[in-house]
Hints:
Blueprint: H1 14-26, H2 32-51, H3 62-75, H4 78-97, H5 126-133, H6 141-156, H7 160-165, E1 171-172, E2 177-181, E3 187-191, H8 194-211, H9 231-244, H10 255-266, H11 271-278, H12 283-286, H13 288-304
Antiparallel strand pairs: 1-2, 2-3
Helix pairs in contact: 1-2, 2-4, 6-8, 6-10, 10-13
Amino acid sequence: MKKSEIVNHGNINSQDITYFLLFLELERSLSQNTIDSYKFDLQKFSEFLTAQGISSFEAVNDSAIEKYLSLLKKEYRSSTIARMLSALRQFYDHMIDAKRYGINVNPLELFDSPKLSRKLPEVLTVEEVEKILSQPDVNNALGLRDKTILELMYACGLRVSEVLTVKTSNIMFNDELVRITGKGSKERIVPAASSSLEWVKIYISNSRSVLAKPYSEDYLFLNWRGRKLSRMSIWDIINKYSKLAKIEKNIHPHILRHSFATHLLEGGADLRSIQEMLGHADISTTQIYTHIDISYLKQVHKEFHPRS
């Protein structure tokens, strides 16, 4: 969110939403995508209150929340509703902390979020990863760039936003490490396979030198105009080479990250180390990969045990 941007949809207390979004940006250092989600959720609630004739956030009561929940259930999945309620809880907590309007009770505190069944992320086998990594044509600048992106994403378990913002100065070739800026602008150091760093060296020498323009910044991966890549560009790259490799799975932008974590766990890595490499603040987020590993073990048992 740009600091000068003001939320104004003609709804109630739009300035309160603006103050909260600035708080998320300046105090919590949340990403722009996350702030945009909060903005959407709060504007949706504000529009509902206006339609109900409720003139201020402090006038919200249990009845209004119940009506709003009923409306959301007709339009959104449980996961989206849970996110929207979380945004509202945090918004009201912020107003309570800021002592705005004399609000001292969060109107959401008696309402539970929908129960969510935690879906296991789709992952690739090692063989499928190798197939994808072998698809780019490394004899041209863009193919070599794409090959290096895929290699580094799998070698380090990078989020899409992280591969977009990695800079040439973040690569520590001698130590075989990469400095990553993750969610909330938090930095972490991640080991990188020597093979992936060899591709980075080749890319910098033979491809980035061609793509870079006088105005290019220090971002490692550039488009043909010499600018930083977009999120959609990364998705297109992953999707393109997955199709060429004839991978018949639900491909998504973080599939190499999920595969990285799962393969480490299958190879015997401990959960804490994987948590550090992935940049998860809470180990419970990392623990979802243990369920994938158990599924893998059950599959192996079924396939190879004589009594299965």
